[in-house]
Structures are given as structure tokens and as C-alpha cells.
Amino acid sequence: MAVRIRVNVPDSTPYDIIIERGLLKNLHERADEFNLSESVVIATNTHLDDLYRDKLTRWLPDAKLALMQDGEQYKNLDTVRGFYDRLLDIGADRNTTLLAFGGGVLGDTAGFVAATYMRGIPLVQAPTSLLAMVDSSVGGKVGVDVPQGKNLVGAFKQPQVVLIDPAVLQTLDSEQWRCGMAEIIKHGLLADEQLLNRDLWQPDRAEDLIERAVRVKVNVVQQDPYEHGIRAHLNLGHTFGHAIEKVTQYAWLHGDAVGVGLLAAAKLSYRLGLCEADLIDTIDALLADAGLPRSTGNLNPDSLYEAMKTDKKWKHGVSRFILLEGMNQATIVEDVPREDVIAVLSEMAD
Ligand SMILES: NC(=O)c1ccc[n+]([C@@H]2O[C@H](COP(=O)([O-])OP(=O)(O)OC[C@H]3O[C@@H](n4cnc5c(N)ncnc54)[C@H](O)[C@@H]3O)[C@@H](O)[C@H]2O)c1
Ligand SMILES: [Zn+2]
Q1: Residues within a 6 A CB radius of ligand 1
Q2: Which of 108, 145, 170, 239, when mutated, tests ligand 1's pocket best, judged by the most ligand atoms within 8 Å of its CB?
Q3: DSSP string, 69-83
Q4: Which tens digits make up the pLDDT trace of 20-30?
Q5: Of 157, 224, 243, 254, whose Cβ has the fewest other Cβ atoms within 10 Å?
Q6: pLDDT, tens digit, for every residue of 326-349?
Q7: Ligand in closest contact with the CA of 172
């Protein structure tokens, strides 16, 4: 069953997120429905190109390809320039549609290219990782990393449609599945307890799982498209998570770091008297069942704290955390004492 979720955000035409198994294999026949122009360039990465080149050629025979290397370390301005060069080489103009086929790294990078090439060309997001389906492809944030930090250069660019075909998850490995689960658990804690029901976590129920998780994000994004308030709640677990990614130089996967970050946020919330202790146990059990790590291992609490200070959300060195007062009750807390954060990080180490 196809699901269509309409997204209304200011300054942009409303668009649909379509969730449908087998959607991509009929892309050519449905080009008009999705408003695909005559000229489509598929942006993807070398890994997905290896896996899907034949299929992509069948799905959209007339499209040209533009490739980037696979990995967060390539989500940068050099790669953006590479895409511009390729688009110019093949004569892409303002009527060319860029179709981003890949995980969050590809979607963010290609999305930024679409936002800026010739002051903006149409973008279609076709997310292929679980994380990209439920998180990065929804909401219009695109951008790249610079040596000083993650996602520091970017734009808002709403796609004209988001095409989610759960069939492509077949080739996603279990590590990446579990990383998507970390964001789904985050969405569940923030706004939909049904997402925490393990029965829904089975790959054969991916459509339902994705639909519910996408709805959480769409609701938040529609209320606060430019992150003046409640959209910040989506950063639950991410202050800790980004610090872990940073100190390990991205050796930790984003979802693993966010998972541990959710537990750290619960522990900090409890320590500050915001929530009951059983919320910690609930999150611990969710992470365990999703195969996500629940400890920061040998990572040094002081180094993690230093890394947190570069968080975009911290202003003038004043800390800012998204914490939980309970299920469905996120709250923003500023100026948390350093010692409380260090205590939680020490508790989370092995
Ligand atoms: N824009 C936003 O709002 C937003 C939100 C959350 C995360 N993000 C960004 O998303 C990125 C993380 O995304 P990600 O977790 O998808 O990582 P990713 O794009 O690196 O994908 C993970 C790995 O899975 C591979 N892969 C993806 N789909 C596959 C498939 N169907 N079959 C086989 N392999 C597949 C990729 O090639 C890659 O090796 C980060 O850069 C993060 O900053 C952005
Ligand atoms: Zn995330």
C-alpha cells in the first residue's frame, strides 16, 4: 500500500513523501506524476553505484549519473565542487532535476548542490538508508561538513517529492539498520510510543515503521521549519552523540553515537531531577533490543565535554541540552553545570 504524506512548509510548494515498496522500479512510467523533467541527473555514491547501476539504468534510462565517494569524510565542499563540475560538463541547467539516491551523506551533499547550482535546481530525494528515510530526507536541511565541524555550511532546500522505496533496504547491512533504529527510537521517545513497540521493528514491517517515524518528523518540521523552537527537540541525544563522533573522528557511526546519547540524555535528565529513574531503564532496554551500544567505552569524559562545546546550539559557552521530563516530554535546558555532565559521562564509560 502506498502512503503519501503531504508536507506544508512556508516559502515552498507543498510536496509529498511517498512510501511504497517497489516505487523506484516504476519511476520511468511515473515520471509525470513525480514531475520529473526531461533532464534528470541521479546523484549517488560509488558504493550504491556498484550495487544499483543496472537498476538505475532500468529505472530511469535517460538519466545521467553524478557520483561521489562513499563516507561522511566526503561530505565536504570538495565533493560539492566535484558535483558542480559534473553538472556543468553534462550541460545541466535550471530545468535539470537532481535526484539524490543514497543515505544521509549523499542526500545532504547533493541537496546542497541542488540548493546552490545556478541558484537552485529541482531536487528529488530518494533516500536509501533507514536513517535517511526517517530523518535526513525529511525537513529540507541540506549541507556539508568543514574541518571545524559537522554541518556548518548548508541551506534549507525542500525537495519536490521524496520517494521512499523500502525495497532498497534489502541491501542495507545490519549496522546501518541499527543506526536508523537509533533515530526511530528518538522519534518514539519524543512523540510516538508506538514506535517503541518491538513488533514494528521487523524488516517486513518497514513501511509501517517508516511511516510512523516520518510522521513524527513532518509534524515537528511543519510546526517549526526553521528551528526557532520545538524543532530543536529532534536533537535529543545529539549533543552527546556529536561529541562522540568528534572525539573518535567519526569512527563511531552516527546512529551508534546518537543511541548512547539518548541514554546519556536520560541519565542527565534524572540527575537534574527532571524525570523518573525508570526512563533510564526503558531507554537502556530499547538500545539493547536494537543492538545499539549503551556505553561510551574508553572515551574520556573531559575530552567529550570539550568536544560538546563546539555544538552549534551552545551560545557563548553556555551549555544547551535537549532533555526528557518523561515520554513525549522533551525540554530544552540551558547552563547545565559541567560537573553534572561529567558525572553522567563517567557513569557511561566502561
Ligand atoms: N539533513 C538532516 O536533517 C539530517 C538529519 C539526520 C542526519 N543527517 C546526516 O545524515 C548523515 C548520515 O546518514 P546515513 O546514516 O544514511 O549515512 P550514509 O549516507 O553514510 O549511509 C551509510 C552507509 O550505508 C550505505 N547505504 C545507504 N543506503 C544503502 C542501501 N540501500 N544498501 C546498501 N548500502 C547503503 C551508504 O553508502 C553508506 O556506506 C550524516 O551526515 C548526518 O549529518 C542529516
Ligand atoms: Zn541524527
Answers
A1: 45, 47-48, 51, 70, 72, 75, 102-106, 108, 128-129, 131-132, 135-136, 139, 141, 151, 168-169, 171-172, 176, 179, 254
A2: 108
A3: -SSGGG-SHHHHHHH
A4: 999 999 999 99
A5: 224
A6: 999 999 999 999 999 999 999 999
A7: 1
